[in-house]
C-alpha cells in the first residue's frame, strides 16, 4: 500500500493513518488521528517492556514525527514515505537510535 500524507485508506496511508486503521479494523479500538495526539494519550511503556501491538515513536528531523506498531523481535510495521506499508528493524541502519518512546492503547 502506498504512502499518502493524511491518508487513512488502502489507497494510501501516512504513518498515523496506518496505525489508526490497523487498530480500528484489527482490534475494534479507536485511536487519535495524528502522531502528536497519540503521543499525548495511551499508557507510557518503558523501553524494556515494549510488547507486540504497542505503538513506537521515532525522532526524525528533531521531533517525534514517525510511528509504527511493534511486532516483536526488533521489528515494527509502519507506513514509510519511500516504500509504503513495510516492516523494519528498530536497530536497523536508519532507525537505530531514533526510537524515543512507546505507548500502549488498551
Automatic annotation (TrEMBL):
Gene3D superfamilies: endopeptidase domain like (from Nostoc punctiforme)
Protein keywords: Hydrolase, Protease, Thiol protease
Domain NlpC/P60: 1-106
Pfam families associated with the record: NLPC_P60
PROSITE patterns recorded: NLPC_P60
Similarity remark: Belongs to the peptidase C40 family.
Protein name, as recorded: NlpC/P60 family protein
Organism: Marinobacter metalliresistant
Amino acid at each position: 500500500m502506498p504512502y499518502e500524507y493524511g491518508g487513512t485508506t488502502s489507497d494510501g496511508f501516512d504513518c498515523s493513518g496506518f496505525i489508526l486503521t490497523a487498530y480500528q479494523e484489527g482490534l475494534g479500538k479507536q485511536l487519535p488521528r495524528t502522531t502528536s495526539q497519540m503521543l499525548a494519550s495511551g499508557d507510557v511503556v518503558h523501553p524494556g517492556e515494549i510488547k507486540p501491538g504497542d505503538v513506537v515513536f521515532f525522532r526524525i528531523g528533531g521531533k517525534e514525527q514517525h510511528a509504527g506498531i511493534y511486532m516483536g523481535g526488533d521489528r515494527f510495521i509502519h507506513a514509510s514515505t519511500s516504500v509504503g506499508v513495510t516492516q523494519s528493524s528498530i536497530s536497523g541502519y536508519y532507525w537505530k537510535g531514533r526510537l524515543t518512546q512507546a505507548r500502549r492503547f488498551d
